[in-house]
Amino acid sequence: MNQHSNKKDQSYEEATFGVSQFKDMLEWINNRKDFELECKITGEWSTTKNFFKGSGYILKHPSGNINEKTLFVILHEGDIGKEDILIGRRIIEINDSKKIHPYQNGKEFSQELYEIIKPNVFVLRNYFKKDLQHRIFFRDSEFDQALSWAKLFIKQFEISVYVEGILIARKKQIPCIITGTVKSIDNNDLYVNLWDGFNPHDPLNDDTKEWLTRNWTIQVSQTGFNKIQPKYVLFEIDEEILLSRKK
C-alpha cells in the first residue's frame, strides 16, 4: 500500500485507499499526524455524474489530532468533467457512512442544493514535513474555542481567516465562503475585514459577489441578522506567530 519515491529530490511516501478502506486510511493518517499530509480525491459529482478530482491538505483539531470518524480536507484545487470546470478553494467533510458534501447547507435549504461527491479513490502523500499547525481549524460546534484562540494573537499579529457558512439576512439566506483578516473579537462575534467572498452554489452571480466583496467588515456569529453563521472557520498564520507559540 505504501511506497517511497522521489519528486525533485524530495522523498515522500504514498498510500492509496478505496472507499471501503476508510478505517485503514484513518489509521494511516493517525500514525503520521505529526506531519503535513496531502490528499488527492477522485470520484463522481452526483448532480451531473461528471468525473471529479481534487487535491488539498488534511485538517486537524487544534490539538493536532484527527477526528476519530470524520476527515476534513481543505481543497486548494479541483475540477469537474471533461471541460475541467474549476472548483474554488473549499473544505470538504469525509466519513465512511455518507458521500462527501463539499458544502453543507442548513436545514432551511432544499435537498436539491446539496453538492455531493461519490468518492472512488483517495491518494495520500507524506513529504515528511513537520506540521507546525499554521492551519487552525474549527467546526461550528467549536466556535467559542475559535474565538478564544484568536483572542490570544489578534493584538500582536495579522491573522488570515477563511469561513464557510450562511449569510443570514432578514429576507434571505445565502450560502457563502469568505476570506479576509481578523479585525477584532468579542464574546460572541468574529469581525472580519473582507478580501473576497462568493456563493459556492452560484459563484458567477455578480450581485452576490459584489455584495460580499465590497470593502467592509462583516460579523461571523452563531446568532443574529446580517451576519455569517459559520459551518467551518480556518485561521491561517505565518511563521512569526508559530515561533511565538513556542516561547
Which characteristics define this entry?
247 residues; 15 strands; globular
Mean pLDDT: 82
What structural class do the secondary elements suggest?
A: mainly beta
Helical fraction = 10-25%
DSSP helical segment count: 4
Quick one: how many beta strands?
A: 15
Rg for CA atoms: 18 Å
Order of helices and strands: EEHEEEEEEEEHEEEHEEH
Distance between the termini: 40 Å
Low-pLDDT sequence parts: 105-114
Shape verdict: globular
* Biggest beta-sheet profile: 9 strands, antiparallel
Estimated share of beta-strand residues: over 45%
Tell me what you see in this structure.
The chain has 247 residues and is mostly beta strands. 14% of the residues lie in helices and 51% in strands. Strands 1, 2, 3, 4, 5, 6, 7, 8 and 9 form a nine-stranded antiparallel beta sheet that branches. A hairpin with a 4-residue loop joins strand 5 and strand 6 (85-86). The protein is globular. Residues 105-114 have low confidence and may be disordered.
Short description:
This protein is mainly beta.
Give me the secondary-structure topology.
Elements: E1 2-7, E2 10-18, H1 22-30, E3 35-45, E4 50-59, E5 70-80, E6 85-86, E7 90-95, E8 100-103, E9 115-130, E10 135-139, H2 143-153, E11 160-168, E12 173-185, E13 190-198, H3 206-213, E14 217-220, E15 227-236, H4 239-245
Parallel strand pairs: 14-15
Antiparallel strand pairs: 1-2, 2-9, 3-4, 3-9, 4-5, 5-6, 5-7, 8-9, 10-15, 11-12, 11-15, 12-13, 13-14
